[in-house]
Design a protein that fits this description.
The complex is a heterodimer of chains A (127) and B (804). Chain A is mostly helical and 127 residues long. Helix content of chain A is 68%, strand content 0%. The longest helix of chain A is centred in the first third of the chain and has 27 residues. Chain B is α/β, with parallel strands linked by helices and 804 residues long. Chain B has a domain of 132 residues. Chain B is built from 30 helices and 16 strands. In chain B, a hairpin with a 6-residue loop joins strand 10 and strand 11. The model of chain B has no long low-confidence stretch (mean pLDDT 82). Classes of the chains: A mainly alpha (127), B alpha/beta (804). Chains A and B meet through helix 1 and helix 2 of A and strand 15, strand 16, helix 23, helix 25 and helix 26 of B.
Chain lengths: 127, 804
């Protein structure tokens, strides 16, 4: 079963909708949101690399995140992105004693990915 | 509540003791109440009340059915958490800030009216920010099931923003007292907040107090403190006497000034002055006082008056002159001459006129008779005058001699008057010196009197002055002496009571210490056993726990060995070990038979415990949950993981915060089930949220289910094989990805490729599900029907979880 890949903003919108929707289990909401936000982040980078450095799309995330520092002038944003991805990654794997991410964490991640999307979006031609 | 058996123990101990009868009565009276104790202290013998029989312990335990919290601390809208009834273990799981602590604190505050976490804090954050500002009025409520009374509801509400303006409503019982909870809340407090676990080591005295309260010996403590108070009171009386004595001694003049002062000084020198003698001295009338009386007599010393002396002297000299004028011989002649004439007249009367019978020359005739008559009368008069002069002289001599007989008859002359009196005596000696004849007598009267009079005046003046001085020396002593006498009498009257009180006090403390040791022994035993379960590889061994000391020195003393060597108490223990130790001491206390509470609430015992100790904790909780409803609040999954792995039955409730301080509580299953349920829920929502989104979420959730299964199996297998907790945890967290985790579990090495093993070991659909979950988590693709895929993942997860 294959569906068309949703755009970054779609994934983020869904995550935001999940934050307010009713779920039988609170954990479901948190895990689902985390999965969506992480994919939004990865999606965002994928689109960026396909424009700027197509070879990086298939590189491991660690490499992609390190390269981002070089490809964008905003190193702070790159660092935030890396940090967000590692946190999301932790939330998307069953670990030792992890509890689902909190609402606060989810909101912060959504905001971070949104900023990233805005930062990496192609700028309108200036000429 | 008077515990009869404790009272019997006291009476028995008194009978066996060597206490004086007064001390024995004081010891028993102190047990009863202040009034009886005061009566006994005053020497009365009031009847001792009969102790009430001990409250019967047949009541059933109270279990927590549900708690709801609203507008309190981190909780806004009402949160209700229902708990499985009866004995058993419930874990309330929630992240920091999820509202789980607000539930725990809310429950504690509801029942106790305070919070241990805030109680010691001076920080206004606690007292000011206790209300949750999201719309809801603060209210705490809970329902407890009690037997045979039935459900009891507690509700605590506030009338203002002041934290202390709360009030408690109890339904199905008059109040907490009726439930027998009030005293039990201090003696068997069923709440152990983290704050207490964390800081107890520094509060050894408080631990002593809480454990002491649990031992049910507060009546002994009350008796001891009553005796303390009585002792203080009696000591104050003793001190008052001492102070009054100091003031008296400061006001004492020179002992020379008054013999009474000397006497008093001598009396005061004794350790126990003769108070009766002092009182006699104080009450002695001034006139009767020896020296005072002497002085008073001396002020009255009066020799014969100068006028009388002068008169006597003159009378004497006049009489001497008169006698000299009428000589003795003349007097006889007058008398004889008159007698002769009388005889001649008698002759004339008998014989008539005749010639003179004596001379013969004249004639005795009537003419002669008339002349003779006159002459005889004259002669008789003259004779009488001479006789009268003699008797006048005799009288004057008598008067003069009487005057000279005056003496100074004062004995015990006070030393100050000695000299004046000596001079007076010299003058008096001169005055009374023997004299010959009336003229010398008159001379002595005239010459010796002036010296005598002057000396006597000196004595009088000196005595008057001395008397005045004496009174002015004594007067200022009278008030302080009276004050001291009263205080000293008071102190003397209570001296026996004081010594008896000291004895009774020591005795009651000794009996209490003995009973305390007796009652603490099983708690200490249990605590040591719990510690053995909790220590989990700790090198710290508890050899003995004892409650020692009294007053400010009281503490719970731990005798600790590290690697079989005696160690200095708590300094050697880590925070995790201290927590475990506090728990070891807390649980036996909360689970004592006498407690009316069926529930025990422990807030965050897992903090700062390492994984191995968490296993011990799980075991301890399992044991405790057999006889109690154990409610544990914790902030991470370690405890629940240990419970699952060790197959300890427990209900896990998960607390989570949503927007607007809205807290949700839901029951939580094992993680595999949770993830699978989550995945199914999303898959069912495909129509709503769209396939594209669904496909981006479901594989990820299924992957988490598989990972959770692998973690669970690997942890269980490795720990069962004796691997160290931290090694296992490091391996699991290093193997971050699903394939690495699977390789770790199935091949023992996360670096090896696990694909072949998966394909070989599991049926095709399950192996496919494995790879689909791994891939789909990133790509949002799935080459299977989503619900089918979730079920395959579930089956695979169960198989992986069962892998040994």
């Amino acid at each position: 079963m294959i569906a068309a890949a949703p755009a970054t903003h779609q994934l983020l919108d869904t995550a935001r909708a999940f934050m307010k929707a009713e779920f039988a289990h609170e954990a479901t909401r948190a895990r689902a949101c985390a999965l969506l936000v992480r994919q939004a982040l990865e999606n965002c980078l994928d689109i960026f690399w396909s424009r700027r450095a197509p070879g990086l799309t298939s590189a491991p995330m660690r490499v992609q995140l390190l390269c981002l520092r070089e490809y964008t002038s905003d190193t702070a944003a790159a660092d935030t992105t890396a940090q967000t991805w590692y946190e999301l990654s932790a939330a998307c794997h069953a670990r030792g004693y992890g509890l689902p991410p909190t609402r606060g964490a989810l909101s912060a991640w959504i905001a971070n990915v949104e900023s990233l999307d805005a930062l990496l979006a192609p700028r309108p031609p200036t000429d | 509540m008077t515990d009869k058996s404790l009272h019997e123990r006291l009476v028995l101990a008194i009978l066996k003791s060597a206490l004086s009868p007064t001390a024995a009565r004081l010891a028993e009276a102190a047990w009863h109440d202040d009034e009886i104790l005061a009566q006994v202290a005053e020497g009365a013998s009031p009847a001792m009340p009969k102790p009430k029989p001990a409250a019967s312990g047949a009541k059933g335990l109270a279990y927590l059915q549900q708690i709801s919290v609203q507008g309190f601390r981190g909780i806004g809208r009402r949160v209700t958490m229902a708990l499985p009834a009866g004995n058993g273990l419930t874990v309330v799981l929630g992240r920091n800030g999820s509202g789980k602590s607000s539930l725990a604190e809310g429950l504690e505050f509801l029942v106790t009216g305070k919070s241990a976490r805030w109680a010691g804090s001076k920080n206004k954050v606690w007292t000011d920010a206790w209300r949750n500002l999201h719309d809801a009025e603060p209210e705490l409520a809970a329902i407890f099931s009690t037997d045979p009374r039935g459900p009891v509801a507690l509700r605590r509400s506030w009338t203002s923003a002041d934290l202390n303006s709360h009030s408690l409503t109890v339904t199905n019982a008059a109040d907490l007292d009726e439930l027998g909870w009030t005293s039990a809340l201090s003696s068997n407090r069923p709440f152990l907040p983290y704050a207490e676990l964390e800081s107890w080591a520094e509060k050894s005295t408080e631990i002593f107090d809480t454990i002491n309260a649990a031992l049910g010996l507060e009546e002994f403590d009350t008796a001891a403190s009553r005796l303390d108070a009585l002792r203080k009171q009696l000591m104050a009386i003793k001190k008052a006497a001492g102070d009054a004595k100091k003031r008296l001694q400061a006001s004492l003049p020179d002992a020379e000034s008054d013999p009474r002062v000397a006497e008093l000084t001598a009396l005061l020198k004794k350790r126990a002055p003769d108070l009766d003698a002092v009182e006699a001295l104080l009450n002695q009338p001034v006139e009767e006082a020896g020296p005072t009386a002497q002085l008073r007599k001396l002020t009255q010393v009066r020799p014969p008056e100068a006028q009388a002396v002068a008169g006597a002297a003159k009378a004497l000299r006049d009489a001497v002159d008169a006698v000299a004028n009428a000589s003795d011989s003349a007097a006889a002649t007058f008398h004889d001459h008159a007698e002769l004439l009388r005889h001649a007249m008698k002759f004339h009367g008998k014989h008539g006129d005749a010639d003179c019978p004596i001379c013969g020359e004249g004639t005795i005739d009537p003419e002669w008779r008339a002349q003779a008559e006159a002459r005889a009368a004259d002669m008789e008069q003259r004779a009488a005058r001479v006789a009268s002069a003699h008797s006048a002289l005799k009288r004057a001599r008598g008067t003069g001699e009487a005057l000279l007989r005056w003496r100074l008859d004062v004995s015990d002359v006070p030393p100050q008057l000695e000299e004046a009196c000596a001079q007076l005596r010299v003058a008096a000696d001169a005055w009374t010196a023997p004299v010959e004849g009336p003229v010398a007598l008159a001379h002595q009267l005239e010459t010796a009197h002036a010296a005598l009079d002057a000396a006597a005046q000196l004595v009088r003046e000196a005595a008057t002055a001395e008397l005045a001085a004496l009174q002015s020396a004594w007067r200022p002593i009278v008030a302080p002496l009276g004050a001291w006498l009263e205080a000293a009498r008071h102190a003397a009257a209570s001296a026996e009571a004081l010594s008896a009180t000291n004895d009774a006090r020591t005795f009651v403390r000794e009996v209490a210490a003995q009973l305390r040791a007796e009652r603490f022994a099983p708690i200490a035993d249990q605590a040591r056993q719990l510690w053995t379960q909790l220590r989990a590889g700790s090198s710290v061994d508890i050899v003995d726990i004892a409650m020692t000391g009294t007053g400010t020195q009281r503490k719970v003393e731990l005798q600790i060995q590290v690697d079989q060597m005696d160690a200095p108490a708590l300094g050697v223990m880590s925070q995790g070990e201290l927590n475990a130790l506090a728990l070891s001491l807390f649980l036996p206390r909360a689970c004592m038979d006498q407690s009316p509470f069926g529930f025990v609430v422990i807030d965050d015992p897992v903090q700062s415990m390492d994984p191995a100790r968490v296993d011990g904790l799980a075991r301890v909780l399992e044991t405790t949950a057999k006889s109690r409803q154990v409610i544990v609040f914790t902030h991470d999954d370690r405890l629940t993981e240990a419970l699952r792995r060790l197959q300890i039955p427990a209900t896990v409730l998960w607390v989570d915060r949503r927007e607007g301080s809205e807290i949700h509580v839901e029951q939580r299953s094992d993680p595999v089930t949770l993830f699978i349920q989550d995945a199914e829920a999303i898959a069912y929502k495909a129509a709503e949220i769209g396939d594209a989104v669904m496909l981006r979420v479901v594989p990820g959730l299924c992957r988490m289910a598989l990972e959770a299964a692998i973690c669970s199996a690997y942890r269980r297998n490795q720990l069962a094989a004796g691997a160290a907790h931290d090694v296992v945890e490091t391996q699991l967290s290093d193997a971050n990805k699903l394939r690495q985790k699977a390789a770790l579990l199935l091949l023992g090495d996360p670096a090896r490729d696990v694909a072949q093993t998966i394909n070989n070991r599991f049926p095709k659909p399950l192996a496919n599900a494995f790879f689909a979950a791994d891939r789909g988590a990133h790509t949002g693709t799935l080459n299977a029907e989503p619900l089918r895929f979730v079920r395959d993942c579930h089956e695979l997860a169960r198989k992986l979880e069962a892998h040994t």
